[in-house]
C-alpha cells in the first residue's frame, strides 16, 4: 500500500504456481545469501563459492520505507530460495527498479522468472509504467533472466 506524501510501501504476499513471495526474517535472508553473491557473478572469471560473512546480512530484514522486498519461498517446503527488491522509484516517469538474487541451488529452474513476472503484474497494477531490472555488467546469469 502506497501512502501519499511519505510514500510508505507495504510488501504484499504474492503467490505463483510454485512460490510464495513475502517479507522475510533475518534467518531467511541468511539462507538466501549463504554465499557471497559478488563472487558468484562470474564477472572477469572470478566465479567461486565463498560463504557470506553473516555480519553483512544484518539489517536485511528491516523494512525500508520506500521499497517492496520479497523473499521467495518454495510452496512445497517453505524453504527461502531468493529475494527480489523493488525500490529507487522515479515519480516523474512512473518507474521502479527491481534487483534480485537466487540461491545457487535453485538456479536454472525458472523460479526467479516466475517471481519477477508476478511482481511486475503487481507493480503495473500499482500504476507503474516503467519497470527496470538491473544487473552488474558482465553478470550473464542475471542478464539472461
Kindly describe this structure.
- The protein is of the alpha+beta class and 145 residues long.
- The chain has a single domain (14-144), classed as 3-Layer(aba) Sandwich (Aminopeptidase).
- 21% of the residues lie in helices and 25% in strands.
- The chain has four helices and six strands.
- The chain has helices at 26-32, 37-40, 111-125, 140-144; strands at 14-15, 19-22, 68-74, 80-90, 95-102, 130-133.
- Strands 1-2-3-4-5-6 form a six-stranded mixed beta sheet, sandwiched between helices.
- Strand 5 (95-102), helix 3 (111-125) and strand 6 (130-133) form a beta-alpha-beta unit.
- The chain is globular and about 40 Å long.
Concise summary:
The chain has 145 residues and is α+β, with helices and mostly antiparallel strands. Helices cover 21% and strands 25% of the residues. It has a 6-stranded mixed sheet with strand order 1-2-3-4-5-6, sandwiched between helices.
Task: Give a quick set of tags describing it.
about 140 residues, alpha+beta, Aminopeptidase, six-stranded mixed beta sheet, 4 helices, 6 strands, about 20% helix, about 25% strand
